[in-house]
Amino acid sequence: MKTSNILVLIIVLLYINASTEWPTHTVCKEDNLEIHYKSCDPQQDFAFSIDHCSDITTHTFNIRAAIVLRHSIKKLYVKVDLIINGKTIFTYSETLCEPGLSKVIFCGKKKGEHLYYEGPVTLGIKEIPQGDYTISAKLTNEDHITVACADFTVKNYLDYNYYQ
Fold it and tell me: Cα(150)–Cα(56) distance, rounded to whole angstroms?
């Protein structure tokens, strides 16, 4: 009996180590808008949700996001790529945290702390581009170590004239 329990444990541990991809999570799925994400950090997944898909068209909407930090944040940088048909067509990067600058509430957090944000987010754009595309977002710290990383797949066929 003990040998079979040990064998099952070894198989489970080998499977966990062999798995390098996280599952795809659905953020929202409505008639004309689907958003899914997958963590691109092989060591960690995270939680992300939007209250209502349709709220995205209002430019400010509520989200929830949670992660346990594997690395401390003294400095934090974000890089976002818009990818269409496998080609990066737009890149945006910004410093979110550094001494004397704190654009987000979790600057200065330490390794092992649980980050949770629930509240409004404003995109700063009038419309989410229509079509099928990927938005790749990566947060890195001062040591260029990944704090969080996700690939968001968007399928948007909303008629914005309806919402104006």
Answer: 19
